[in-house]
Amino acid sequence: FRDNSMAAYPALKRDPFNPDPYFARRNPGLWFGGPVVKDRLFFFSNYEYTSQVSVVTFQPNVASASGLAGNFANPYHGHLFSTRADWKINDSHNAFVRYSHDQNRGFGPSGGAVLPSNWLRNENFSDQSVVGVTSILKSSLVNDFRFNYTYWRNRNLFADETTCADCIGLGFPQLNINSTNVTVGHTSNATQGRDLYRFTFVDTMTWQKSSHRIRVGTEIEHAPGTGFWGFCDPACTVGFSPEFMRGLGIPAATMGALFPNLPTTIRTNQDLLNLPFAGGVVGVGDPSQPPPYNVDKAKVNNRFRFYGQDAWKIKPRVTLNYGLAWNFESTLVNRDLDKPQYLAPLYGSDLSATENNYNNFSPAVGFAWSIDKSNKTVLRAGAGIYWETELLWRRLEERAAIGPVGNGRLQVPHTSFTNIFPGIVNLNTGQPVAIGQALPASGQVTNLTVGQFMQIYNQQIAALNAQLAPKNLNDLSVRNIQLSKTANNLYPHEYPVQHSDHVNVGVQREFGHETTVAVDFVRRVFVNTLLGSIDYNRFNRFIGGVQTPVIPQCTSAAQRNDPTAQCSNGAITFWTPGGREVYNGLLLKLDKRFSHRYLFTASYAFTDRATVNGITNLDNYFESYGPTGARHLLNVSALADLPWGVQVGVISAMSSRGPVMPTVTNVDLNGDGTTTTPIPGVSYNCFNRGCNADDLVTAVAAFNQQYAGKRDARNQVIPTLTLPASFEFGDNFSSQDIRVTKTFSRRDDKLSIFVEVFNVFDVANLGGYSFNLNNTATFGQPTNRASQVFGSGGPRAVQIGGRFTF
C-alpha cells in the first residue's frame, strides 16, 4: 500500500489549486497450494487485486498554454488469477495444466503525458490455458509437448463525462498545437477493439548421443483475430500556436485583420477553435479490422518455426553449440491484393502483391572453453542471425486503400475538402483560397481557423462518405485509392522483414567467496529496420516554389471525383524497410552468489549505438543517421539477511543522458516536403555526444545570418532563432530503492512485514525537454519529473506491505 501522504510531490512546481494531489495503490492477494494425491497430484493457485490511482503531470512546453498545466488522476483496477495442477502419471510421464485470467480497466494516456480529453478508457479481458506433457521415451530420449490457448479482448474508448467531466477539448476531434506537447480531443488511437485468439503447439525432442546433446523441435501457431479501429474520429487536426503566428513577422495591422480572434493565452475550447488551421486527416469508412474483403483469409496468421541444434562436448573443457532454425508467417503482408495501375508511378510496373518472406533461416554457432583445469575461467563466443516479426495491424490500413470501394476505413487528408469561406488567404503564396478550391497543403499558413475547418467538415463529410460507400465488396475494378487519391501505410513490392546479426565474445572468471567477474563485448547489427511510413508521392515537395508531387495534384472537382484520373489529393505513404542500426557494447558484471548471508550484483555497460533517428530529409533517408541511447548504464543490487529475521534489499540504477538534436519546425529549406529541420552546421544527434552549448550558439548564429528573414522552399518566412539564457540537453537518470523486511516465525507460520522506499534521495530525473528552437521560452527546459506511475525513478515514495504464510 502507498498513497500521496507517503510520497514526494509529483510535479516540478506545486499547484496552488491542487497542492497535494491524491494517489494511492492497494494490492492485496493470496496464494495457496499443496498435494491432492500424495506424490502424484499437486496444485497451486493465486489471486491478486490491484486498485490504484496514480498521477499524470502535464506541463505545456508552450507559454500560451501554460494555464492548462496540472496533475490529473490516472485510475487503474485489475484482477489476476492463476491456477496450476501437476500430475506425475508414472515414472516416464509427467503432465501439467495451467489456467490464467487477467481482467483490468483504466483511464490514462496512450503514450506520453497529454491532457485528459485525449486519454483512453482501456478495458482488457484475457484468458490463457496451457497443457504440457514431458515423456522419457528412453534413457537418452526425452520429448516435451506444450499446447497453449489464449484469448484477448481489448477495448480502447474515448474519454467521456464520467471520466473527464469539464475537461478542455472533451468531444473535440484530436487537436495538436503544432510543435508542442499540447493535444486535446478524441485520441487517434480510439475507438479501437480486438478479439484475438492463439492456438500454439510446441514440441521439442532431446536426444543424448555420446558427446552430443541434440534437440529438434517445432512451433506452430494458428492466430485468428478480428476487431475495429475508428481512427481519427471525426478527425486528427493540427493548429498553429499563437507564438508561431506572431513570430512570422506579419505586420500588426495585417495580423489584426486576418486573425482578429487569435488568442494570446489558451484557456477555453473557443480559444482552441480560434487557432489557425495547420492541417489534418479525417477518418472515413467502416472501422472493422480486417476490412470485409477476403476477411476469412485476412484475419488469420499462421506461424511456423522448425529448428535443430547440437551441443557437442568436443573435450571435457570445450563445448561447441551450433544449430539452424527456419521460421515463416503466412499473413504478414497482403498477398491476396495486387496494386491498382494508379500506383504504378510509386510502386513500379510489377503490380503483383507484396512478396512474402520465405528465406528466414537463422544459423547460430557458439562455444564455451574452460581454459584452466580448475574450471574457474571460461572463454565464450557466439554468433547468430535472428529474424523479427511484423506487427499485424500495419497491413490492415492497406487492405482498405487498395481493396474495393467501401472496403474499410481510410485516412482522408484535409486537402480533399474545399473552402467555403470568403476572405481566406494563403500567406505562403499571397493568393486567396477561392470558394470551391481545395484547401492548401499541410503546414501552409492561412487564416482558416480550426473551428472553420470543422464547419467545412460538417458540411462536406456526408458527400465524402457517400463517395466512398460500399458498392460491390468483391469488385476490384475500382479501388478506394482511385477515389480518395491518397493513402497511408501501403506496402512496397519487396518488404524484407528486419533481422539482426549478433556477435559476442566474453570471458568469465570465478574468484574466491563465490564471486565471479564477466567481461563481454557485444555487437548487434540490425538490417532492414523500419524507417517508418514515408510519402512516396512527395505531395508536399516544392520545386522552384511550385508544389510538385509525383502523381500531379488534382486541380478540379471533376478530377477529384474521377476514378480514372491520374491525380492525387494528398500523401501516399508506404512502410519502408532499409534502415540500419548498429549496437556495440562492453558489458562488465560482478556477481556474488548468496553465501554468508548476502549476495550482490553490479553490472556496467558502455554502449555505442547508432541508427536512423526518424526521417528529416526525403531526398536522403540517412541524413539523420547518428547516435542514440544512453552511453553509460550502471545497475547494482544487493540482498542481506541480518540477525533477528531482518532482510535488506537494495537496487540502484543509473544512466547517462542520451543524444539530442535541436530542430527548427515548420521550415523546409530544401523543398523535400519535411518541415522539421535539424539545425544546420552540426552532425545529427551530436549534443551529449561531443557537441556542447557553444556549438549550438555558433550554429544558431550561422542559421540566423544565412536564413533568418528569408523565404523557405514553400515561400514561408524563416524565423530568427533566439536561445534562452540557460538550457540543458536533457538529464541523467538515477534512482536508489531499498526494501526492509522483518519476518516473525511461529512453528510453520510466518508473518513478513516490509517497507519499501523508491528513489530514496528524491532525485528529480527531469524530463519533457523541448528541443524546438522556435520556442525560446521552452527550449532545453524540463517540464516534468520521471513518471509518478508506480515504479522506480519517480518522486520518492514509501510503500508498505505484508505476507502471512501458514
Walkthrough of the structure:
The chain is mainly beta and 806 residues long. It has ten helices and 41 strands. The strands form seven sheets. It has a 25-stranded antiparallel beta sheet that branches. Helix content is 9%, strand content 45%.
Key features?
mainly beta, 9% helix, five-stranded mixed beta sheet, 25-stranded antiparallel beta sheet, 806 residues, 41 strands, 10 helices
Overall SS class: mainly beta
User: What is the tally of helical segments?
Assistant: 10
* Strand percentage: over 45%
Could you tell me the radius of gyration in angstroms?
Answer: 30 Å
Mean pLDDT: 94
Shape: globular
Termini separation:
22 Å
Helix content: under 10%
Sketch the major β-sheet.
25 strands, antiparallel
How many E-type strands? 41
Low-confidence stretches: none
Layout of helices and strands:
Elements lengths: L1 E2 L20 E3 L2 E9 L3 E18 L11 E21 L2 E16 L11 E19 L2 E18 L15 E4 L5 E2 L7 E18 L2 E18 L5 E5 L2 H5 L5 H7 L10 H5 L3 E9 L2 E2 L5 H4 L1 E16 L2 E12 L14 H4 L13 E10 L6 E11 L8 H7 L6 E5 L11 E2 L4 E2 L17 H18 L12 H5 L2 E4 L8 E13 L3 E15 L3 E3 L6 E2 L2 E2 L9 H4 L11 E4 L3 E17 L2 E15 L12 E3 L4 E11 L3 E10 L7 E3 L10 E3 L14 H14 L26 E14 L2 E10 L7 E2 L16 E2 L11 E9 L1
Parallel strand pairs: 9-13, 23-29
Antiparallel strand pairs: 1-2, 2-4, 3-4, 4-5, 5-6, 6-7, 7-8, 8-11, 9-10, 11-12, 12-15, 12-16, 13-14, 14-20, 16-17, 17-18, 18-19, 19-24, 21-22, 24-25, 25-30, 26-29, 27-28, 30-31, 31-32, 31-33, 33-34, 34-37, 35-36, 37-38, 38-41, 39-40
